[in-house]
Every structure is written in C-alpha cells, then in structure tokens.
Write a structure and sequence with these properties.
By secondary structure, the protein is an alpha+beta fold. 52% of the residues lie in helices and 21% in strands. The chain is built from 10 helices and 9 strands. α8 packs across α9. The radius of gyration is 37 Å and the shape is elongated.
Length: 312
C-alpha cells in the first residue's frame, strides 16, 4: 500500500506538472494570439496610413522588386498595384538614370547603408505613359533576418519646379516689354566678360534710347508710350541674331549684348536696327527715331565701365 500510495502521489505530481505545462502553453498561445492581433492591427494601421498618404510610398525587396504600392503611387505613375507588383524599381527610372540607380542598390546590399537614409534628393522618374518628371525622394532601409528591404517616399514636384522656373524668369524679365532686365544684364555680362578674357573673343554692346520719348508720353499719354516701347522691342528683336541679348536698362533705354562681335560688326547691327525702327509707322505717333552708342570690350573693362562708355 505504501508503494501504491507513493505511486499515486507521483502520478498526482506529474498530473499537476502537466496541468501547469498546459496552463503555460495556453498562456503562451494567448500571448501569441495577442501578438498576432497587434501585428495585424499595426499592419492595418500602416496600410490605412500608407493608402491615404499624399506622397507615393513604395516598398521593395532586396532585389529591388516592388512588394507594396500605395494609391498615391498609382496616381503619380499610372500603374495599378497588380501591374507593378513584383516588377523592378528600374521600371520607374528613365533609362539615363538606371545605371546609377542599380549601383545605389548594389551599394546598399553590400554595405547595408543608403546615402539617402533620412535625407531627400531630387531626381527624375518615369511614368507608365513614358513621361519623365521631377520627384523628391527619401529612401530608408531595414533588415528582417538576413534580408534587406527598402522603402521609398516620393512626391511629384513638377508644379514646384514650374513655379520656381516662372519666378526665376520673372526676376530677370522686364514686365512691360518681356525682354531681360538690368539684373539679367549683370548676370550675362559677368559670364561673357569672363569668356572674352579666357578665349580672347570680341564682345560688344549697343546702347540705344528713343529720341524725345518724354514728348510721346506728354502728348499721347503713357498708354501710347508703353505701346511704343513694346513695339520697338519687337522690331529690335527681329533684327538681332540668336546669340544676342536684348535688355531694358530703364525707361526708354535698352542694351544689346553682342558676344563674339567686334566693333565694326556691332555698328552694322546697330545701323540695321536703327533703319528698321525708323521705317516702322507707329500708331498715333508715326515715325520714331532711335539713337545708338556702340562700344567694344577692352582690357580692364567691367560691367560698369563698358556701359558707361556706350552711354557717353
């Protein structure tokens, strides 16, 4: 009986241990289910955030094949998720940028580091319809086990680039005549003087103004005066070469910058322009005459001295 009693005690002990193990397994299962639930909730949150994001969000595996594609990416590039899934990121890159893109992915695979992590860079991308457009891109990388994954957040900056271009144009353009303004004169002349010094090419400028322009404004009003300025710039532009620059210096004064042009050729150009202006019959005012000052760059000149000599 004693042995039987010991056996019973041992069985009870083993049974209790089994119950404890079962209890632990149930707890582990409950924790695992909770973790799975949390992971699913986090994945659902990520997908909700990603799908409602204004920017394109793209995930790719270590080989650069796309494994996630949000709605903004579809809107920007034109590919549906079904069309793009599993395709190489290279499909989104214009051909001239693909070599650099592949090199970047190879560097990340070999070093585990990306030069773009936490940064943004501007580059160009390729839409499904073949259009190339500017983007701002941020790339991150993470590791699961032995595999690397990439995530890219990008936005289409076409509107911003167009606006920047428009603002840049406005900054150097005379609003009335739509030719270059004084700011652009200094930019062009700095470049052309440097080129003249380096290559010993001739450089000339022609300064001209409308004779008795104040009388035009006094007799006919500023609206007619504006019309004369606008019309004259159109006439002058038709006489210039593609390499010449027309600048409104201020009021009724204008400058023509003539690269690779010596004084004799500049005089011929000025005379051609003078005749074209005098030949034209302006509305209300009739004939308008224009006076010219022509000079060539000489050693020691700068943007100010050459224009002063033309003005004198």
């Amino acid at each position: 009986m004693l042995d039987n009693d010991k056996s019973t005690e041992m069985l009870l002990e083993e049974l209790n241990e089994l119950r404890l193990e079962v209890s632990k397994l149930k707890e582990s299962e409950a924790r695992l289910k909770q973790k799975e639930k949390e992971l699913q909730e986090n994945e659902d949150k990520f997908r909700t955030i990603a799908q409602t994001a204004i920017d394109a969000i793209i995930l790719a595996d270590v080989h650069g094949n796309i494994i996630f594609w949000n709605k903004s990416a579809q809107s920007i590039f034109g590919y549906t998720e079904d069309e793009i899934f599993g395709k190489s990121l290279n499909i989104l890159m214009p051909e001239r940028y693909r070599a650099a893109h592949i090199k970047g992915l190879e560097r990340i695979k070999s070093t585990g580091k990306s030069v773009y992590i936490g940064k943004t860079t501007e580059m160009h991308a390729l839409k499904k319809n073949g259009d190339v457009f500017p983007i701002e891109l941020s790339v991150s990388m993470w590791k699961t086990g032995e595999e690397y994954y990439y995530s890219g957040i990008l936005r289409d900056i076409t509107k911003r680039k167009n606006l920047e271009s428009e603002l840049k144009t406005l900054a150097v353009t005379d609003t009335l005549t739509q030719v270059f303004n004084r700011t652009k004169y200094y930019e062009i002349m700095e470049r052309e003087i440097e080129r003249t010094k380096r290559y010993d090419h001739p450089l000339s400028i022609i300064m001209f103004d409308i004779d008795h322009f104040k009388k035009v404004n006094d007799m006919y009003g500023h609206t007619v005066g504006d019309y004369v300025l606008q019309t004259l710039t159109q006439i002058v532009q038709e006489t210039l070469r593609e390499t010449d620059y027309l600048v409104r210096w201020g009021g009724e004064e204008f400058i023509v910058i003539a690269p690779d042009t010596d004084l004799k050729k500049a005089e011929i150009l000025a005379e051609r322009t003078r005749k074209a202006s005098e030949k034209y019959k302006y509305d209300n005012t009739g004939t308008i005459t224009v006076s010219f000052g022509v000079t060539q760059f000489i050693k020691g000149d700068n943007e100010e001295t050459i224009i002063k000599r033309a003005d004198d």
